UniProtKB/TrEMBL annotation:
Cleavable signal peptide: 1-19
Keyword Signal on entry: yes
Keyword annotations from UniProtKB, A to Z: Signal
Organism: Sphingomonas canadensis
Protein name: DUF306 domain-containing protein
Length: 120
């Protein structure tokens, strides 16, 4: 499902050393700002990054797709799919205390995933 989305997202999470010395909320805001060019990007299966933002120490990534793309999946499943690839490349993101949440949209309904604080 996230075959091409995961590497693209994970590459953006390389945390610059200068940002690590700032507060966690500032780090998350910097990462979110750096990822804005990915909003609207479409990946395999029609999945699209719909939003990227910072809510304090939480990086929020919104994902959408064609009608029914989320059938049979709950918020944890979607979050886990994105997180598995993310942690291969961007696990250092969490060492600063930063958090991640995935929100998925399907047929006008948004599922809010759990707040993730570490790679599994």
């Amino acid at each position: 499902m996230f075959k091409y989305l995961i590497p693209a997202v994970a590459l953006v999470f390389a945390t610059p050393a200068a940002a690590q010395s700032d507060g966690v909320a500032e780090l998350v805001a910097t990462v979110a700002e750096g990822m804005q060019s990915m909003v609207g990007s479409e990946f395999e299966g029609g999945l699209t990054i719909t939003q990227i933002g910072a809510e304090g120490e939480i990086l929020v990534i919104g994902v959408g797709g064609p009608s029914g793309w989320r059938a049979g999946l709950d918020a944890d499943d979607v979050s886990d799919a994105l997180l598995s690839g993310f942690c291969k490349e961007g696990a250092d993101f969490f060492t600063s205390g930063a958090k991640l949440r995935v929100e998925s949209e399907d047929d006008g309904r948004t599922l809010v995933g759990p707040v993730v604080t570490a790679c599994p």
